Amino acid sequence: MCGIVGYVGDEEAAPVLISGLKRLEYRGYDSAGIAVLGKSGLAIRKSKGALKFLEEKIAGELKEGALNGTLGIGHTRWATHGEPSDINAHPHTDVSGKIAVVHNGIIENHAKLKEWLISHGANFRSETDTEVIAHLLNFYYHGDLLKAVIEALKRLEGSYALGIACEDEPDRIIAVRKECPLVAGAGKGENLIASDVPALLEYTREVYYLEDREIAVLYRDRIEFFNAEGERREKQSSHVEWDAAAAEKGGYEHFMLKEIHEQPKALTDTLRARIKTYATKTINLEEIGFDQSWANANRVVIAACGTAWHAGVIGKYAFERFARIPTEADIASEYRYRNPIFNPRDIFLIISQSGETADTLAAMRMAKKNGNRIIAITNAVGSTLAREADLVMYTWAGPEIAVASTKAFTTQLMCIYLIALQLGRLRETVSDTELASCIEALEKLPEQAEQILAGKENIQRFASQQFNKAKVFYMGRLFDYAVSLESALKLKEISYTHSEAFAAGELKHGPIALVDETTLVTALCTQTALFDKMDSNIKEVKARRAATAVITYEDVDYFDKTADQVFRIPRTLDSLSPILSIIPCQLYAYYCSVLRGLDPDKPRNLAKSVTVE
Ligand code: M6R
């Protein structure tokens, strides 16, 4: 997730921008840049990597006063289009170099706009989607930046928060947002914009939260607000009471809770750009080059670790269900040492949030060496996995700071479903009707995830009754078994509770020996054809005095008489249910961790990215 800052006032802008960007570092980034408007025009400085590299780059100029100027915009970039590099770092400028733009979000129609702008003389330098905005503004600029912004917005599809400065208008910054956060701060003789409140707190606690498609025009002494049509708006500021540390977490107590709540937005970002509407809705994976050449594969082999492997297990069911292709989901550390049998017609799907997990990379390299083509699903643009794979599908979940993976998991699932369905189309195993109903169901998931989050108090209450349980088991069948694996991992890694997952049919083959009155068994029940089997399993553990909970659909009362507690999720297709059913389990793990007095963001003995064996 990128970070934006902007300043107009009486102080030198560059140090203000750098200090604001530092306050946004928690959001994660891979490059940074600033544009300062001084006497000799816009000065732009950018650097790949940590902010300190940018600071080192400009240190001399700051001393000499060569970067003087009291208006500027700054940016920390989390790469989505184009690898992390100086060129791809923001701000981006138009052909004249007079208009500078910083951007957070994804411009979905950037390819079309780029083509059109090139035909009108634009000369692109970066691989970013953002650069189209700068050229578009140039196209519409006839002496009034606000008018140009209003015209450009009409052409932009996707999500954005923008900070814009123009050499010919040295007294103002323009800011606008759609589906990405942006706040304006009102200081004394100075005004600022930022992606998040912490970057403003040093200067002001009076902030304006911009609404979707609302435009803020910041001068030294005032901020004016307009709607996207250019009509003036009155707006009330809010007073911020939080301290900086709380503000970084957006008011949430922990990053994990914040990231759990970010899932609806992350799922929307992952999905939206990949669904195209012409006459009907279709999946478009052209951006990653997923074409007919992948259709006559023999098998799909998935390799990953931890949570990403659990996504892979769901992938196995999804590929077999939709594309009718034999699929294996392997733990990467096992795969690399078991002398596997390769077939050049196998598709390798490698899943990794970080794109840097040592075992996962080793499995990928083995497959490559044996002539296999690799599809990567990752959250990290420019990661080793992204660079070495043949095709990359980004999850676009934004940086995940908490060690326990949440939004990375659900967005990995979204990517898997899209690839599985598209492969099904290419192999003619998914009909038009089935595709239409799956797309409709996928599109509902973000809102349905929001509904589950709105009922989080039920989970919190349940956790407050159960958090001291000695053993917690999760069980389910098919897709629900895979969600059980992930639920047990979440609980054990952040609450240190002994938790295990079982395929429910395996219960009587061993695990039931562990079940007694100290056990909580949570049954995932979303596979409609197997409700009666699950009901029997729940009765079996109840008979051994275990406490029981069920996660099922809102319209199912099948388990009401059997289980002690039933949690309901919105109705979706059984094959897509994991994206929803995992959310109550994430919340349960989070609340147990907090109730046990632990820090869910930093569990003991664990690292966010395991780059060694
Ligand atoms: O970055 P990766 O997705 O490759 O990481 C894989 C695992 O290390 C990771 O999912 C780990 O299991 C998390 N702590 C789970 O919450």
UniProtKB/TrEMBL annotation:
Compartments, record wording: Cytoplasm
Catalytic-site annotation from UniProt: C2 (nucleophile), K608 (for fru-6p isomerization activity)
InterPro entries: GATase_2_dom, GFAT, GFAT_N, GlmS/AgaS_SIS, GlmS/FrlB_SIS, Ntn_hydrolases_N, SIS_dom, SIS_dom_sf
CDD domains in the cross-refs: GFAT, SIS_GlmS_GlmD_1, SIS_GlmS_GlmD_2
Catalysis: reaction(s): D-fructose 6-phosphate + L-glutamine = D-glucosamine 6-phosphate + L-glutamate
Signal peptide span: none
Residues in Glutamine amidotransferase type-2 domain copies: 2-221
Principal location listed in the UniProt entry: cytoplasm
Statement: the UniProt record of this protein carries the keyword Hydrolase: no
Protein name: Glutamine--fructose-6-phosphate aminotransferase [isomerizing]
